[in-house]
Amino acid sequence: MSEAVVRYNVLPHGEGLNPPAYASEHAAGLDLAAALEPGHAQFLAPGERALIPTGIALELPHGYEGQVRPRSGLALRHGITVLNAPGTIDSDYRGEVQVLLINLGSEPYAIERGFRIAQLVIAPVSRVTLEIVDELPATKRNTGGFGSTGQL
Known about the structure:
The protein has one helix spanning 72-78; strands at residues 7-10, 21-22, 30-33, 42-44, 49-59, 64-69, 80-82, 87-89, 96-103, 109-111, 116-124. It is mainly beta. The two termini are 36 Å apart. 23% of the residues are buried. The protein is globular, with a radius of gyration of 19 Å. It has a five-stranded antiparallel beta sheet with strand order 2-3-11-6-8, with no helix packed on it. It has a four-stranded antiparallel beta sheet with strand order 1-5-9-7. Strands 4-10 form a two-stranded antiparallel ribbon.
């Protein structure tokens, strides 16, 4: 398997944080850390959302995207998840990677500098050409939507 090279900058407020890294040999996502001001936690009340900086900016290769996804442990233990999961980072974006978190739990949660708040999956992008037609070919499912296959 070949590896794409992703270059990144550490922004001033990200200095000293652990770099994005895979937590295990076969992990799909790189852990992202909160680049909050030292000693100033970001509190999320139940139902509250906040945009958390990571202190990094990326140069994704053309043909790739970054997908910002929740960390399963935060979701399970505290109800903290990525609101727009997966958040998409396009290859032409050069600004700071930020994570939109929401507290779906029943207790307030404090996010502190260096906390691993999300994971970043780098994935190839497929682009298509759309072609308008008068009618689409029928299938067995056809126009059956939510729950139409019997699997809710």
